[in-house]
Structures are given as C-alpha cells and as structure tokens.
Amino acid sequence: MQFNTIKYLVFLFIVFAVTLALSKLRNSRWIILLLASLIFYYTWQPYYVALLLFSAALVYSTGLLMGRSPDLKTRRRWLWAGGGVQLLILFFFKYTEPIISSITGLNPKSAEYPLFRILLPVGISFYTFQALSYLFDIYYGFRKEERHAGYFAAYLTSFPQLISGPIERSGNFLKQLRQPFVFNLQETALGTRRIVWGLFKKVVVADRIGAIVDPVYYDVTNYHGAILFFVSLLYVFQLYFDFSGYSDIAIGSAEVLGIKLGENFNHPLSSKSVTEFWRKWHISLGNWLRDYVYNPILFANKKWGKSAIYFALLVTFLICGIWHGAKWNYVIFGSLQAFALVVEAILARKRKQWANSKTRKVYLAISWVLTFTFIFISDIFFRSGTVEDATHIIQSFVSSNWRLEELLAYVNMLTKPKLAFSLMFLISLIIVDRRISQFAHGKKDFGQFGNALVSGSMMAMVIIFGYWGKVAFLYFQF
Amino acid sequence: MSRMIKSISLFLACCVGSYVIILLILCNISYSNVAVIHYTNNYSVRIGGNTYHQFHNFDFNAPHDIIFLGASKAMKAYNPEIFNQSGLNTYNLGSHVQDPENSYEIVKHYLNSSNCKQIFYEITDGLYSQPLVPSTQSDIDLVTNTPGNGVAMDILFRNFDPKLINIYSIRELQLNPIAFQAEPAYKGLGFVGRLHSLSLLNRKELQTGKQRPTDNVVWDKQSISDLKALIELIKSKNIQLIGIYGPVSTYYSDKRTAQYVDYMRDIFNSYGCEFWDLSRLPGIEDKTHYSDLSHLNKAGADIFSDTIVKRIQQRNTTGREFR
User: Are residues A375 and A419 both part of a single domain?
Assistant: First the structure.
C-alpha cells in the first residue's frame, strides 16, 4: 500500500475513525496502531510480517534484559547480543546478495545464481536503526526500558514511519502514545494539509521529473554532456521533492492520529555549506548518526584533538553511504560527504571571518553555489547504477562534447508542452516551497475559508496533475 | 463534531470546485487544435483512434449474426467484410488490451439477444496468465471513447483510480468533444488491418527468442474468474458463445500455446460452449502474415477470417460442432 494511492488514504481514514470511535477505551490506542501497522505491512510483504514481529520481540526482550542489568558491562553485552542479531538480520537481507554477486560476478536475477533470490524486506534499514536507537538510549541511560510489549511493538512497527522514516526516537513517540487520544480539529487539519502537500510534491512534481530523468539514467552511456547535465540537475530536485514529500505524508499521517513526529527536512537545497545541508537533509538519519556514531567516536578519541573530528566524520559518513546499500557508488557518495565536511571543518575559522566581513552577501552567494554544485555532483553517484555510469556522466560535463542537439531532440521527444508543464510545476514549487511549507506547518493562517481553499485547490491539483501509477518513493529501496 | 463536519465539507467543496474549474478551463482551451489538458499528463488520451469510430458507428438496433470480442488480437484478426461477403452480418468490437472485465462491460451495456446472435470471443495470451498485461490503457480508452455513460461509469467505479476519475471528468467537461486521432489502419466495421509484415527487429526477436514468453503458463486466478463471469453473462443473455484461440506466431512456443488451448477449452466446454483451436493455421506464415509478433496483418486476417467462414458454412451443412 503505497502512500500515493487512494487505498492508503482510505486506510488512514479508517484507522483515524476507529481511533476516534474507541478513544474512550483504555489501552485502545496502541492496539489499534499495532493492528493497523501489521495490516499495512501485510499489504506490502505478507511473509515478512513475522520478521518484523521477530525484530520487535528481539529488541523488546533485549531492552528488558539491559534494563535489569546491574552494571554497564552486562548492559553492553546485551546490547552487542540483541543489537548484533538485529544488525545481522539487516546484513543478511540487504548485503548478502550484492556481496555474493560482486564476488561471483553473477547477476542475482540470472538462473546461474547460486543462491535463492533474497527479497529485501521493505523498511528494514529504517526500523533496524529505530530499534538500535532504542537499545543505545537504554545503554547510555537516556531512557528506561519499555516494559509493555504492546506499546513497544506499536512504536517499532508504527505504519506512518515504518517504510522510510523519519527514524523516530522511542521516548518522544511512546510518551505521546500513552496519552489518551483527544480529537483536536486543528491538529487533524494540519495533518491533512501535510499529507496533501506531500502528495503534491511527490505525484505532481517528483514523478513528473522522474519521467524525464529515468529514461536517460537507464542507460547513461547513450547520452552526452548537455542532456546528462540537464537530467542530473533535475534529479537533485526529484530526490528532494520525492523524499521530503514522503516525509510530509508520514508526519501528516501520524499527526492525524495525534502523534507528532520529528521533522525530516528543512529546505536543505538552500544550504550555504555541506554541514548546514546535513542539518537540514534527512534530519532523523543525521541525528541518529550524530548521536550513535559520530559523538561516541569523537568522545572515544578526544585526545587526538582535531583529528578525532575528521576521523569521526569519515567513519560516520562511510556508514551513511553503506546504509543506503552495498554498492561502491554509495561508498563514494558517503566519502564525498565526509571529505567536504572535513574541508569545511578545516576552513571553519576563515569562513566565519569572511561571513562577518563587509562582503557577506558575496560570501553567501558563493557558498550557496559551491554547496549546490557539491550536492549536484554527489547526487550523481547516488543515482547512478554503477561507479562507471557516474564517472561517465561527470566526464561528459568536462568534455567538449556537449551535443546540445541531443538535448533538443530529447526535449522534442518529450513533447514540448508536457515538458513545459513539468518545468512550470518544478519552478513554481521551488518559488512557493517555503511559503506553502509554512502553511502546511500551521505557521501561516488564511482564515477558515482561506485554509480550506488553499488545501482544497492543492488537492484538486494533485488529482488532476498527478502522475498516477505505480511509482514507488525513491527511498523505499533502502 | 459539527465543527469537524463543517471543516471537512468546506475542504471537499473547495476541492471539488477547484477541480471542476481547473479542468473546465484546460479541457476547453486548445493548443495546436488539441485541448491543453491532454498535454498535462502522461495518460490523458484524446478522443479518437479506432475505438471511437468502432463504438460510435456500431448500430445497436441492427441484428448481428456474430460480434467479435477480445483484445487487439481480435480487433486485428477478424475482418467483418470477409464474413459479410458470405451473407453474415458481423461487427468487430475488439479493442486494445480489452480484458474479460472490460468485455463484460461491453456485453452488459451494448449487446443482447436481439442485436447479437453469437459472440466469437478471442483468447489473448497475456491477459490470463502472469505476468499479466495491465488493462489500464484499455480502461482509459473505453472511458474516453465509448458512447453512453454505462461502460465508462462501470469501469470508473470498478477501479476508482485517480487516472480514471480524471479521464471520466474530461469526458464530461469537454464542451465540444471531437474525435481527434485517426487510426490509419482502421478499415471500418471495427476492424484494424495493418498492411505491413514483420519488421526487421521483430524478425530478429523471432530468431533469437529474446524475451519470449516462457513455456510454462502461470494462470492468473482473477482473470480466469473474470472470464467465467463473462461467459455466464453471455449465456444469461441467450447469446451463443464460441471461444477461439486464433493464430499466434512461433514466438509463442507450441508447448505454451497447447497449455493455453487445453485450459481454455476446458473452461468453455464446461459451460457447454464450443472452443476452436486455430492457433497454428496452415497457410499463415510468421514472416508474411503478421504485422508484429502477436498480431496478424490484413493478409493474415483475411486468410483467418476466410477459414472461419468456411468452418461456419461446414457446420451449417453438417450440423457438426467443433470442440
């Protein structure tokens, strides 16, 4: 059940109606959420519901054992045991096949492939990180273990963020789940706005751009400079609007059910540095990596001085890259981020001096251009199927072989008015993104009729201009 | 609660109002003689093609001896002109990717025992087995092009998909609907006869067998159940039914074809209907009688239609049924 389908909206409405109808019953909230989440996951991969429940049981019991441990050493042992098994599950499903295929050189889809085909359970990277955050929090003493198995299972499997995040901390989530559900029209309206806004970003803009980008990326070796530059530039926006659209629908869905999730995006494409970009892009993953990878490494090696920062950045972003998949282009993507962050850390003082000088505006403009260019380049590695494809694209930018006629031919093939509509939506969205976001976040109010008109017309545009079909969210593959 | 109902109503009213206004404008402003709405999306189709003429030229009140139904394989294989030369009154209502669900709607809304004595239903590989060919394009085609609201409404409610909601709304909101596209190979009476034979690419595919459907057929339960519902509907309308597996190129292996024929024959026979296996017809050659790997060209269709005419005449004189 994809978020961008009528089925999902009907499903969400039913869950909301049942939650509202049974709100006076004690304990009803976690039961409804858990059941709804299992049904939701069942519609994706029925056979992996058992795996999801196993993970929930494993992490729940590990949490209990850690909570009962008298000392840090025993807690650490349980953390390694429980967290290790959960990581092994992730490793088995996500990395076995790519590793074997890279060793044997065989395509996992071919008949000669020595193992059975391993289907990746959807959302496993996300719920594994969520599970680990729970165990780390108990280990570091940030929270007590959850004793109620039902509440814990409802937290780990919660359908709004189960498939692609945001990676939610247990403390914030469980505290809200324990409160009885009180209907609040304002919150429900805001949640609905977020869902409509997310749908707009996904089906009206991201999927339209996808229809232009995907055919070229399917076989990049057939194309040259101009066209590769054009679609790679579009991809930066496709990825942002697709993933932030998904996050908006997830956050909005949870809000309709009375649960506030953390934000996942904050206009990252306007960042003036890569450091700022990572504070605004996939915030929940960034926070997770900061708290459970970067900070512990930095702390453990603090005597190294600044080198500890550089080392921690390198390890953190290598993990970030590999988390996306066992492919060299993700490793390069992560390494590029680490490299940029290290450079920024080295130049931090000089940048600050320039930022405070009279030429501040020039500094900001140059910083934005450099940051956007960096995102543009690193996203090529993120999108490409192989490192060879990515290097072909980048090489084609610097070669003199730009072939503008190829771009014109491609534009003609797409039919100009259709392309014009897609670009018009993209440019309009870039212009109004911040303002409509404020509206979706409830920071802008147009009065009762105005709010209904903006939301209603946005929904109408979603229905009319949406690229409806089975177009999955880009982050579902992780 | 009343505040909630008021808010939801206001939201829905604004949504519906904006939807109608935006569509009304885009459906009635043209660019290069085509309503702008057709440029805005990937699935929005213009009125026309062969389906529009096929259904709008069909005389619902005239008695027909045979109506041909099925997907494009039917549309391109049965030439009513050949049948009509032998004194039969026939018409082809086959259309692109017309699956049994869509055939059901056509029979339900357009056919009865007084305008149709007999239906020849063509079985198409890919509409009953995995991987299933999706019927979205057929849904959109029929919602856009069929006369009256019955078929369009039923297809809309059965799928309830945003695409079809839009297509149906466009159908209703176009103030001056005109059939834009013309299918050059449309020959009238619902028949599309392409003149060319296999392209070089098709010949290469035929030789290499690249992407050839597998030998083993995996049946799609839902499609089979839809087919059974269609047969029951036709029988309940007192219309005679004959299932046919018409010619397929050797791109589809003998083993696969035999599985299709045997399985379908069992289904049709279980309802007391004849099933004709004409999959490998003498005189029909891959290279000369197909316009692509799955469809006959006009030359092939004429041979095939002629064969059926002879079969019908033989049956009429001998009274023998073909199973």
Answer: yes
B5 vs A: CB within 8 A: no
Q: Token pair 């001096």 is at which residue? A: A353
CB A220 within 8 A of CB A389: yes
- Give the integer Cα–Cα distance in Å for A327 and A323: 10
Give φ, ψ of B92 to 5 degrees. -105, 115
Q: Which residues of A touch B (CB under 8 A)?
A: 6, 183, 185, 188-189, 192, 211, 415, 417-418, 420-421, 448-449, 452-453, 455-457, 459-461, 463-469
Predicted confidence band at B38 (pLDDT cuts at 50, 70, 90)? confident
CA distance A206 to A414: 16
Final residue of a structural domain among A127, A160, A183: A183
- A324 catalytic per annotation: yes
pLDDT in tens, B164-186: 899 999 988 888 777 677 788 89
Mark B181-211 as b/e (b = at least 16 C-beta within 10 Å).
Answer: eeeebbbbbbbbbbeebbeeebeebbeeeee
DSSP-derived pairing of the beta strands B90-92 and B129-130: unpaired
Domains of chain B: 1-40 (no CATH), 45-318 (3.40.50.1110)
* Strand B129-130, strand B116-122: pairing: unpaired
The verdict on B179 touching A (C-beta cutoff 8 Å) is no
Question: What SS3 state is found at A399?
Answer: coil
- Which amino acid is present at B141? D
Interface contact B7-A449, CB threshold 8 A: no
Whether A64 and A169 map to the same domain: the answer is yes
Tell me whether B157 touches chain A (CB under 8 Å).
Answer: no
In the chain, the amino acid numbered B41 is N
Which string of b and e fits A84-112 if b means at least 16 CB within 10 Å? eebeebbeebbeebeebbeeeeeebeeee
In terms of residue numbers, what domain contains A76?
A: 7-183
Instruction: Indicate which of B30, B32, B41, B215 best probes the interface with A, i.e. most A CBs within 10 Å of its own CB.
Output: B41
Q: Which of A148, A224, A282, A324 is catalytic?
A: A324
Of A24-38, B4-18, B36-50, B64-78, least confident by mean pLDDT is: B36-50
| Residue B8: partners with Cβ closer than 8 Å, 6 or more residues away | none
Contact (Cβ atoms closer than 8 angstroms) between residue A224 and residue A398: no
pTM of the model: 0.84
Say how far apart CA B107 and CA B127 lie, in whole Å: 18
Structure tokens at A342: 């290290």
| Beta-strand relationship, B191-192 and B274-277 | unpaired
- Rounded-to-integer distance, Cα B18 and Cα A35, Å: 36
Q: How many domains does chain A have?
A: 2
Nearest CA in chain B to A449: B10
Q: Do β-strands B240-245 and B64-69 pair in parallel, antiparallel, or remain unpaired?
A: unpaired
Among residues A8, A478, A457, A467, the alpha carbon closest in space to that of A197 is found at A457
Predicted complex: ipTM over 0.85: no
Residues A132 and A247 in one domain: no
Task: Report the pLDDT value the prediction gives residue A406, as an integer from 0 to 100.
Answer: 80
Report the alpha-carbon distance of residue B59 to residue A274 in Å, rounded.
69
Contacts of B31 in chain A (CB under 8 A): 417
> Do A122 and A230 lie in a common domain?
no
Give CA–CA dist A337/A355, Å, rounded.
22
- For residues B272-311, one letter each, b for 16 or more C-beta atoms within 10 angstroms of the residue's C-beta and e for the rest, the string is ebbbbbbbebeebebeebbbbbbbbbbbbbbbbbbbbbee
**Total H helices, total E strands in chain A:** 23, 0
Instruction: Dump pLDDT digits (tens) for A219-252.
Output: 888 888 888 999 999 999 999 999 999 999 999 9
- Paired tokens of B166: 């839009």
